[in-house]
């Protein structure tokens, strides 16, 4: 029923994507068109044949999306049934309590996203399948229209677009000129894998091509610029990595965050719908643990994007669902608010009032003459460029760190309650390293004070 209700909205959304591009596809300067004997008004409008093809492509994309969603009922039900079967077996074995088995069943059901099974047997998540279907179908439509226009005005050469982080096989031909007839001096259609699932215009390919008027058009990218794009690297934790590898690492972190959110949504629903108090307590403990993990993963992704210069795509981190009668509506503000509150609770108590004395920084952690602190001081300067001259920068980084990371409580002593906070900080030299910091809240105060800090493993 939900799929049926959503179908009309799906059609509207896909149509909007197509309509928005209609006026942008043939944006060629009028002086270039006129110089080649082409009427700009005629060139920039869709011919009757193009309109037919455009509408057919729109119908095809919409149909594919609807077909994809129809497979999810079976995969979702199978996941639910399998989780229940495993839970029952665990209870009957006697090795698990009722509460443990139910908790594990909830997490097992949340392990995988709502899946789509293609006729080939390939399995992927519903949102990834929708993204691929719309992106691929739309790009193929635009490219086909470019070809129709090129045929109409007898244009043979096309220029492929280029972008940062292209997959290695596509980076070889992006930005190049292609002769559709196979003329010498240009790439041909086989060179770019035209029509192949992993080539130009294939699955998830973000490349397009544009009409190239020989003698008038100027290439958008020089060979030197394309070589830089192909070999472009980014820096993460002081190491150079290929741009494409960095984008794949970003996708991996996004998938981890989505999984965290699925687990939290499922646990939250379990808590709200359970009548067993012991089970509620068990699920609440698990929710707290997963909430902290989510915020840690989000911080890791933010740090990764900040260091590499990649743009954070929050759309890829989201979990989507339609609200049901039971109140399930995926990643809601309610669940997010609970996760934020739990993460805040696990930080160093009163971290905003933390005391970081000069004695601990200048007299100890950055003092190369200190009997016990000199090795720490040498490491801070060697790996992060910190010394007594820029100690305020180090103090600022430590304060940032305790505001973004959880604190681990250590056994209490006769003097007070110790804590440990591990954090990644940026050095005065622009490099990053993980440091460990020790804190204590003395018996006669509520403010934590720094007792030790050093670079982990150095």
Description:
The protein has helices spanning 2-21, 30-35, 40-44, 48-93, 98-111, 126-152, 168-171, 223-231, 243-273, 277-308, 333-345, 358-365, 374-384, 391-404; strands at 115-117, 123-125, 157-160, 177-179, 209-211, 233-236, 239-242, 408-409, 416-426, 432-442, 449-455. With 458 residues, the chain is of the alpha+beta class. The strands form four sheets. It has a four-stranded antiparallel β-sheet. It starts with a helix and ends with a strand.
Short description:
By secondary structure, the protein is an alpha+beta fold. The chain has helices at 2-21, 30-35, 40-44, 48-93, 98-111, 126-152, 168-171, 223-231, 243-273, 277-308, 333-345, 358-365, 374-384, 391-404, and strands spanning 115-117, 123-125, 157-160, 177-179, 209-211, 233-236, 239-242, 408-409, 416-426, 432-442, 449-455. β6 and β7 form a beta hairpin.
């Amino acid at each position: 029923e939900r799929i049926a209700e959503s179908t009309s909205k799906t059609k509207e959304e896909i149509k909007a994507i197509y309509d928005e591009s209609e006026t942008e596809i043939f944006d060629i300067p009028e002086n270039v068109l006129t110089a080649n004997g082409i009427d700009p008004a005629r060139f920039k409008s869709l011919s009757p044949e193009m309109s037919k093809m455009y509408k057919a492509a729109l119908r095809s994309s919409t149909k594919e999306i609807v077909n994809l969603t129809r497979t999810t009922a079976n995969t979702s039900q199978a996941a639910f049934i399998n989780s229940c079967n495993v839970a029952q077996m665990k209870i009957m074995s006697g090795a698990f309590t009722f509460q443990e088995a139910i908790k594990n069943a909830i997490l097992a059901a949340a392990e995988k996203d709502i899946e789509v099974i293609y006729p080939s047997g390939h399995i992927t998540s519903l949102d990834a399948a929708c993204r691929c279907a719309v992106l691929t179908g739309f790009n193929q439509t635009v490219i086909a229209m470019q070809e129709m226009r090129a045929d109409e005005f007898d244009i043979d050469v096309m220029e492929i677009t280029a972008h940062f982080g292209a997959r290695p096989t596509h980076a070889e031909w992006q930005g190049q000129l292609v002769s559709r007839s196979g003329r010498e001096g240009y790439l041909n259609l086989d060179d770019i894998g035209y029509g192949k699932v992993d080539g130009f215009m294939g699955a998830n390919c973000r490349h397009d091509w544009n009409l190239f008027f020989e003698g008038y058009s100027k290439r958008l990218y020089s060979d030197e610029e394309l070589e830089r794009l192909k070999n472009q690297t980014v820096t993460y934790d002081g190491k150079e990595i290929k741009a494409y590898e960095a984008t794949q690492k970003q996708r991996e972190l996004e998938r981890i965050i989505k999984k965290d959110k699925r687990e939290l949504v499922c646990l939250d629903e379990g808590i709200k719908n359970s009548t067993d108090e012991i089970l509620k307590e068990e699920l609440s403990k698990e929710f707290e643990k997963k909430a902290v993990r989510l915020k840690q993963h989000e911080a890791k992704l933010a740090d990764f994007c900040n260091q590499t210069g990649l743009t954070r795509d929050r759309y890829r981190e989201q979990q989507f669902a339609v609200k049901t009668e039971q109140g399930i509506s995926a990643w809601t503000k309610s669940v997010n608010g609970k996760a934020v509150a739990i993460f805040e609770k696990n930080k160093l108590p009163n971290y905003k009032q933390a005391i970081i004395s000069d004695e601990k920084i200048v007299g100890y952690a950055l003092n190369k003459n200190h009997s016990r602190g000199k090795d720490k001081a040498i490491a801070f300067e060697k790996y992060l460029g910190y010394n007594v001259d820029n100690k305020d920068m180090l103090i600022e980084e430590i304060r940032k760190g305790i505001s973004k990371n959880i604190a681990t409580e250590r056994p209490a002593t006769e003097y007070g309650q110790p804590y440990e906070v591990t954090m990644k900080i940026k050095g005065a030299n622009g490099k990053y390293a993980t440091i460990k910091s020790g804190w204590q809240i003395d018996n006669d105060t509520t403010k934590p004070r720094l007792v030790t800090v050093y670079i982990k493993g150095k």
